[in-house]
């Protein structure tokens, strides 16, 4: 509305988002290439906003926490900071070394896709994602597939982390980057030397224009007595009166106003962190702890249900596999039985034929014997006839002998066939017995299968909409949660050590693929700081000690 003040518009945005930690945020706009923030007590249209419509404001974090995990209570607050910091890293407004970029990308993937599943997250699933700064990609002779492989390797290790947990891990790593949360302004000292002023949650820092990572001078908020400006001249008065007053000039009066706004807001938050939490913050933290405990219990319940479903499915699959195996065995037994029956029929038929042949041979042998007797009875008088007759008698005797031997052989063969037939029938009986056993097993397995297959449908439903959830947080639950938190702290220290080892390992692995000629000034400065063992916090501490 036309009469609305900045606070009215700001409150509307916060209510729409469900945001209660409003003190970190503001509405930003740009006027004449200079960033400005909407004042809460001034009418929106009375600001020096652009005249073209619609007027665009950006809802952004204006102040940053010292420790994201301790200070950011609401999940929506954490999510907004995650989105803003991620964009600043990808846009290279915050310098991030290559190995840390890969680790942060893996947490961003966990926040978006959930747990890694090789069946779902196949090669190329990150092809369209913007996960690494262009500076990092250009610095190495590595294909997108090679980057994806390294991001996925770390992504797979984050299994079990919910979206809010992955985003918080991202912020915990990002907050240790040298340029995190720092607002830079071009200034000149009394000698006219060009410098940079950095304003952040810890204090004021003076940088060389070519080195935004390591400050030359630092003024922590608790060591500053007064900050003021007159026209374009800005004055910082240290608490220790022995230390010289630091004066500098900015390019525009509007910039001085912005610097003072940021100084006041950061100083207020700095002092507020070192006091007891307000009642509102205490209530928010208590609600956040309860919500975290509830979500943890809900995740554990869902994990148990998922495990039970998977076990039921595995049991069902095993029973189905066993049933198929029994069906195959039954089919093979049926085929064996049919073969046995066919063999028995053939053997019976062959035995019958052999028996008939033996009878026929015996009949022929008897006829030959009769013929021999008749020939002997009809004796031929002449010698020649006698000789011929003797020869015929001899041949008849030999034929009779052969007939007798053949008859005996056929009889033995018939006996053997009878024995084979008996064995075939015994084999047939065994096959029928086995088939009967398999049939009884199959029916038992089917009944088991039907009862097991129905198991998953009886499990608790994943639908959380149909009924409201309520939990009573007893003292024992909170004590157990406290113990778990202490355990998590110990585990975090171990993980931090492991994390640093992993980062160093990745850095060594990809070092051979680096194109040295593409290193930026910030890359070189970061490597020098790393080789000296300098980090963001100990550098600021050393600088502030030396300046005092």
Automatic annotation (TrEMBL):
Q: What is its main location?
A: membrane
Q: What is this protein called?
A: MERL protein
Q: Where is the signal peptide?
A: none
- Recite the lineage of the species: Eukaryota, Metazoa, Chordata, Craniata, Vertebrata
Q: Which GO terms describe its cellular component?
A: plasma membrane
Key words of the record: Cell membrane, Coiled coil, Membrane
GO MF terms, alphabetically ordered: actin binding
Coiled-coil stretches noted in the UniProt entry, renumbered to this chain: 482-523
User: Which residues hold a 1,2-diacyl-sn-glycero-3-phospho-(1D-myo-inositol)?
Assistant: 39-42, 257
What CDD domains does the database record attribute to this sequence? Answer: FERM_B-lobe (cd14473), FERM_C_ERM (cd13194)
InterPro entries reported in the protein's UniProt record: Band_41_domain (IPR019749), ERM (IPR011174), ERM_C_dom (IPR011259), ERM_FERM_C (IPR041789), ERM_helical (IPR046810), Ez/rad/moesin-like (IPR000798), FERM/acyl-CoA-bd_prot_sf (IPR014352), FERM_2 (IPR035963)
The cross-references to SMART domains, in alphabetical order and at most eight, read: B41, FERM_C
Membrane-protein topology = Peripheral membrane protein
The organism named in the record is Mesembrinibis cayennensis
Region (Disordered) location: 410-429, 526-548
